Amino acid sequence: MTPQSKMRLVLATGITFAILFMFLAVRDADADVIAASLAAMDWRFVLPIAVALMLQFWFKALRWQQLRSPFSSARTAEVFPATVVGYLANLVLPLFLGEFARVHILGKQLKLRYTPVLATVVLERVFDFLSVLLVVGVVLALEPRAPADLNMAGTVAGIVSVVLIAMLAAYLRWTGQLTALILRLTSVLPADSQQRIAEQVKLGALGLQAVRNPRALPAIAAASLLQWGFMGLCIYFGMLGTGIDVPVSAAFVVLALTVLGVTLPSSPGFFGTIQLCFTLGLAPFGVPVEQAFAASVLFHLTIYVTGWTTGLYFLRRSGLTLGGLKQAGMEQQT
After folding, report:
1. What is the DSSP string of 22-67?
2. How far is CA 202 from CA 49, 103, 130, 328, in A?
3. Which of 55, 159, 223, 244 is the most exposed place for a label (fewest CB within 10 A)?
4. Pairwise CA distance, residues 118 & 162, whole Å
5. What is the average pLDDT across 294-314?
6. Above 60 in pLDDT, residue 183?
7. With b meaning 16 or more CB within 10 Å and e meaning fewer, what string describes 272-291?
8. 312: helix, strand or coil
9. What is the pLDDT of residues 236-281, one digit of tens each?
10. Torsion region of 48: left, alpha or beta (phi above 0 gives left; psi -120 to 50 gives alpha)
11. pTM to 2 decimals?
12. SS3 content of the chain, % helix, strand, coil (to 5)
């Protein structure tokens, strides 16, 4: 199957899932109540959502700059444009090609080898998962207004995150030995799967170079937590803008579901996925489906327009077009 055919298949699958998720999000909703909730949205919250999103981009760029420190001395301001353009690519392209596109842009801009830069992107996924799990766990465990079952879920998430952080520390200490063990354990898998796992493990080991710097590690950890904290604020402002009175922990429940949801097949822009995550995440807090859907629209529309406008600005400055961005992402993926 050619890359173009693969992309068309993934896009068709994603659109199918988007329609399904949108249906699941509103299947029990009253259309008139949804219309009333949308009409009552407070558009003044667009600005704080957009500002929180840009701060999320900044801390993501800061973390990426720290992870790349063994390979380049570029400043965060130099990494920021590629970060924003990568987000734009993820909004308009399937297969998370934005991650590969930003590797291409940064490598071209700073004249870096692609493999070390790609290695830091692989490590970013690890920090993303650990950060979201830890933030959600702590917020839910300590939130007195959260339902008791969510308090328990938060405690479990916090414990799991601590265990995984300990495992990461062990991998830092015995990288070579654990890499060899993982490769031996996957030797029973089909050759293609074994090769993909081996490539990811080797990239992860390469990306760990920055984490071994005692001075860089606190900055990487802090940037990860702040990055996802500001994304949680984006969601919370979306709730406030639709009159939803819930604890801030509810926003992080939605955040956790969204991080999980966007890993599933979805259309570019994650339409349907975000709406379903809002309705499911706010249900335990007694929020009606119609109001949760309206909050998802305010949040989604704001981050989508902000991502498009800022991404196109930096894309134009980089000398690429949307078509070139797609080609760059596909070339890096292969």
Report:
1. HHHHHTT--HHHHHHHHHT--GGGHHHHHHHHHHHHHHHHHHHHHH
2. 37, 17, 20, 23
3. 159
4. 26
5. 95
6. yes
7. bbbbbbbbbbbeebebbbbb
8. helix
9. 999 999 999 998 989 999 999 998 888 776 777 889 999 999 999 9
10. alpha
11. 0.84
12. 80, 0, 20
Tell me the C-alpha distance between 127 and 111, whole Å.
Answer: 26
- Nearest CA-CA partner of 300 in 86, 25, 8: 25
> Which pLDDT tens digit goes with each residue over 47-57?
999 999 999 99
Greatest CA span in the chain, whole angstroms?
61
Query: For 63-79, what is each residue's pLDDT tens digit?
Result: 988 887 776 777 888 88
Q: What tokens appear for 136 in the block?
A: 């959600």
| % of the chain at pLDDT higher than 90 | 34
What is the phi/psi pair of residue 210, to 5°? -70, -35
**How far apart are the C-alpha atoms of 81 and 206, rounded to whole Å?**
24
273 membership: H or E segment, kind and range: helix 273-282
Residue 333 burial class via C-beta count within 10 angstroms: exposed 0-12, middle 13-18, buried 19 and up: middle
Is residue 124 within 8 Å of residue 64, measured between CB atoms? yes
Amino acid at 208: L
Amino acid 124 reads: E
What single letter denotes the amino acid at residue 256? Answer: A
Contact present, 320 and 105 (Cβ < 8 Å): yes
Q: Quote the CA–CA distance of 85 and 52 in Å, as a whole number.
A: 17
